[in-house]
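pipeline/complex-builder :: batch 7 item 3
reading input block
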Amino acid sequence: AQTVTQSQPEMSVQEAETVTLSCTYDTSESDYYLFWYKQPPSRQMILVIRQEAYKQQNATENRFSVNFQKAAKSFSLKISDSQLGDAAMYFCAYMYAGGTSYGKLTFGQGTILTVHP
Amino acid sequence: KAGVTQTPRYLIKTRGQQVTLSCSPISGHRSVSWYQQTPGQGLQFLFEYFSETQRNKGNFPGRFSGRQFSNSRSEMNVSTLELGDSALYLCASSPLGGETQYFGPGTRLLVL
């Protein structure tokens, strides 16, 4: 079974600084997707960024970028120029891209990010 | 496009009752997945529906069931509620089920 581990229960960053959230996963598959979702206090789950396993290039979305290390099964999220609105719980998630695992995301335990003004 | 909508947003029930939650996906999305979020267990996959068929199911008891209608709207039902069913129930939609999921605001269920 696939597992996703976020080893940092809490992180904090100063506004305008950079922070990196860690995620490791375990899978025997070679074709999958990895995601970072953000869940603010409103509890609405918001997609931050997505990475396809077959792509060597790391995904980037504005101030958000990932460091995808397939061999090490590591998928960290870097937030640059942190803003107060970035404060939220961040979840790393895995989805197998084939077989019968339709529509199933496996989530990590989450990392609470606090942004200090 | 309108996002994923879920109704109701909040619900209070008592043990032994049953509850039905509704999810309307993004227009054009045919896959709907359901998740349970609790402080102790985190986010857990319940099931996924596509074209009115359940294609995937998580490790939950049979009290948890769902269905999908021809317009892709989905409902999930929990029968004989237990205190441990108190949770945030999230649904997510995607075009075909094997790619990025977009989440609704959730239904917060409290079982007393």
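note: The CA atoms of residues 85 and 115 of chain A lie 8 Å apart.
queue -> next item
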